[in-house]
Amino acid sequence: MLANYHTHTFRCGHARGKDREFVESAVESGFRVLGFADHCPWVFDDGYVSEIRMTPAEVEGYFRSLTDLKKEYADDIKIYIGFEAEYIPELIEAQDRFLADYPLDYMIMGQHFNEVEYKGAYMGVPTADEGILKQYVDCIIEGMESGRYRYLAHPDLLDFTGSSELYEEHFTKLCRYLKSRDIPVEINLLGMTGGRHYPSERFFRIAQKVGNKAIIGCDAHLPQSLCDRDSIEKGKCFAEKFGLEIVETLDGLD
What we know:
alpha/beta; 4-stranded parallel β-sheet; two-stranded parallel sheet; 8 helices; 38% helix; 13% strand; globular
């Protein structure tokens, strides 16, 4: 891999390791580009504090640390500072205002929830509800239309257990939309190595039929994940199995 744009930090509460350790691991592994995309904070009016993403108070330290590392390791690797975020329309305006003065390079979409997280279900929980599936696809399309996100992380996170026909219908709609906008779908290595329900072969059979491009994302929550050559090779083999063109690097970040 030339690049990984899906790297977390300890600030999200479920990743481990110092920022520098992730950079050094990426350099050791031969990456030319490392993008940090930790879980983006939301500004909650009611004072709710999320346990799965950094708080607004931690954002200053996030950018300061990564900006310093970007300069220090400039001769070894290109570092970008981003976020992974859901598209939750009611919270977007406040998020934009909050992030306006930070040197944000990019965002990727990871639609873990269709609504504010304490009001809605996590998409990784099995569901046969077509309404949740439809809302998931519609939210992603609406979010991508905003131009905020460079690609869709773990597109198959939604664990739909209903009929195959409904799965095919809604995810074909999503894949066709993404292809029309030249937005790649992520082959998520954390899901692959962790024995999760994604990457899903039935999703990627649809992506193969539609002709989507794919990007491999380490979804690194530990520095050593960036040195896991076996998982990277598995990701490449997975893409080859479905005949998907791999996007190595994202254009237009500089």
